[in-house]
Amino acid sequence: MTHPQPISHYQQRLGDGTSCATLITEACTRAEADNSGAVVRVLNERALAQATAHDQRRASGDQRPLDGVPVLIKDNLCLAETAVTAASRILEGWHAPYTATAVQRLEDAGAIVIGACNMDEFAMGSSNETSVYGPVANPHDPQRVPGGSSGGSAAAVASGLAPVALGSDTGGSIRQPASLCGCVGFKPSYGRVSRYGLIAFGSSLDQIGPLTTCVNDAALISQIMAGHDPLDSTVVERDPQEVLVEPGDLTGLRIGWIPSHSEGCDPAVQQALQAARTACEQAGATVVEVALPHEQYAVATYYIIATGEASSNLSRYDGVHYGRRSDGCNSLDEVYAKSRSQGFGAEVQRRIMLGSYVLSAGYYDAYYKRAQQVRALIINDFREAFQHCDVIIGPTSPTVAFARGEKTRDPVSMYLSDIYTIAANLAGIPAISIPGGADQQGLPIGVHLQAPSWHEGRLLRVAQALETLQQK
User: In angstroms, what CA-CA distances link 100 with 46, 80, 153?
Assistant: First the structure.
């Protein structure tokens, strides 16, 4: 495990005369040597060719903010002319014809993609155990999971393979693995960052965001990715500068506290949360109790809406229109059945079936429509809570990283790993997980912060202040 370094480390080395080619060669070597399962492919030739071109560009005076910075991307983000599989057998052999907008903007700023990270298949999982490539080892204990679905991205950053890895967050898939691996995981407001080029899971919930070693880097990467995109009609035209850390300390800020959140956590997590609360108060913030009355229905609501959207999004992978086709079929129905049953893993099949059921005639009103109504209540709960506080603090995960295989036979237990992160996706608000210490075994604990939509600057201000307080 290499000591993780922030973006500033690479910028400093570049300023001291180290070439982009050297920095990228070192990063590719680290990624290739890693045996944790975090990286599924290293793009050596592509990355080095770009680095050499960047050195030539810089020699002519054209310097950019992310020059020399190696970036890893989750295996559900398109990168032109490279393999993208969403960790699924059904996309074996497929190469993306274009690059995702978020990735392209990082590359335009000088960053270089060195490879793709492991993940739960089609981003469906909380432990990175559903991948066709196999599980990912937690950097702090190889027998434990890194979280999911962006487990490979979180493990890669925590292991020091790269200062930045992109993930996607549908119900906590950036923040929960960040908590379990001990890095920063940031989900911007829904509509802040383009989803063009992201292989869809739940289109009204998915959001691209960074996993980094520090809050400043998460802000910088998100600001570069943010902004209007004509290729994604859900992106809102707002100033990307809103994503940068607001100046100021915590004096006068109101921090929302939900007592039931800490009560449902492991003792070590409760202790870390109390320490974070005390730090906020000592830094000048006021802690006020708030409530989210309908949050108790968030998991059930999410698993109706998300599976319904997944069922629709994944219908294209049928072996005819799209995706891997099974051989030896005698009819079109057999092509569909064999291609999908052989191409999709058990968890993806489970969610497709659940989604097809809740969208089916006779059940739509009872399930999907009602779930959307509860979603509206959850959104209103957040609006009411933010009338009384500026940011809500709580746990990212109720536990530290659990043992590999511990929850694979109990889907409901696995789903509850995201109990504190799901509501932010349903409401579309920005949220971040930052390291909040560790338990007696040295396993990381994450602190979760949430803010109203489009108030990333405020959220990042609190996150950075807490980060600084914890480092003292």
Answer: 16, 8, 17
